[in-house]
Each structure stands twice: as structure tokens, then as C-alpha cells.
Fold this protein.
Amino acid sequence: MPDRHYEDPSLAEIYDLTSGWSIDRDFYLALAGGSPKRILDLGCGTGLLCDAYAALGHDVTGVDPARAMLDVAKRKPHGSEVEWIEASAQEFRSEKEFDLIIMTGNAFQVFLTDADILATFATMRAHLADDGLIAFESRNPAIDWPARWNRDFELRTGDTIIHQSRRVLKKEGDRIAFETYYLFPNKKLVSYSELRFLTRSEVEDRLLRSGLKVEAVYGDWESRPFDGATSDDMIFLVRSV
């Protein structure tokens, strides 16, 4: 099930305030190139990238398990030009094949078991066109993420101020659990999250087991090589074996 900050309508409405357009979206947008592509966005959220792809004339399918996020996505300027599907990445199936399949926003890390990871990679493999490209990212487990994540924010939407805070609850093995608190003028909401942090070699192993091979691994959104000690991100570009 999606975390509350994806499935609660009031939280979905403010999602873009903290997860709006950024350099990672520029990276994924550029992957599509200039000619029209068939693009699948697994875990599309509020549809920022889907909308941007559609604006450039691409044939776009956005998939997300959270209905509240899709409700926001459909209202994007080019939302009517995108095929929106409520489904998990593990279970999504279509007769279409895609030239580009993406999974952004570190959505890969919500898969807490190997079964879910392999099911997601199977979805990607089944829907990848000949010479198609898969791209997704995951955070580098060598970084001290708990030290970075205990933070307070202030969000503004119109005349409304929303106080947001994030607190790490525990780090056990390759998992980190945390809660995010949202204080609205008239209510308080809490979302529990748990993420899995695999190493580069662990991700690559599961890709190979799924009939997929790594073409490149970048350590940042400017396509510099991944450094296991210092890079925040592992950005995988993947094709079929």
C-alpha cells in the first residue's frame, strides 16, 4: 500500500510543493530525445514528468498505485493526453511496448522484498521495446541518510502555511523507517515510510536475474560516474540482455 503522503488527498494536493520540478526531472526528460517515443512512467505520482513528456508530443502512460496522486496528475496542463493507470509496478500489464521506461523519485526503494523488486523488473522487461531503455535511481547506502533527514519545513500554498517535519525512527540492516508530520491549520497528519537501500552490486545482481543488463551507472544528474564512497545517487541506465 502507498504511504499516506501519497494516498491522502490533502497531502497529494501539496506534494509538488516539496517534490516539484528539479534537476533529476531535467535528466529524465532529456532521455526521451527529440523524436516521439512511447514512454512508461512507473510510480508517476502527480504526473510532472508525464505532463512534460506529453507536451513534447510523446505517447505517455503514467502508472501509480495511489489514486489521490493520479487525481492530481490528471489535472496537469497536458493530463488529458496521458494514459493514466492505477496499478502497482509489480502488477501492471499492458499490450504496449515502450521505448523508454522510467521510475523516478527513488520509487525503487519502496520495494522492501526481493520478490517485489523482481516482479517490478519483470514488468519492465515485459514492456520494453527492442532497443528500449530503462532508467531509475536509488540512494547510495554508503551515505548517512538519517543524519540528513531529521528536518523541519514550512510550506506555503496561497495564504495557508503547513508545517512539515521528518523524523527517522530506526535503521536496521538495509532499511530505514521514518515518519513525516504535516501540521495544517485545522489538522495534523502523519505518514509512516520505510525504504530499502541496496548496494550497486545488489541492484545489478537482481537486474541480471531479470534478463536486464546495466549500460551505465551515474553518480549525479550531470552524468558523472558513480563513486561508491561519495555519490548520493546511483542512476541506472538499463537495457535487455
Summary: The chain has two domains: 4-139+199-240, 145-195.
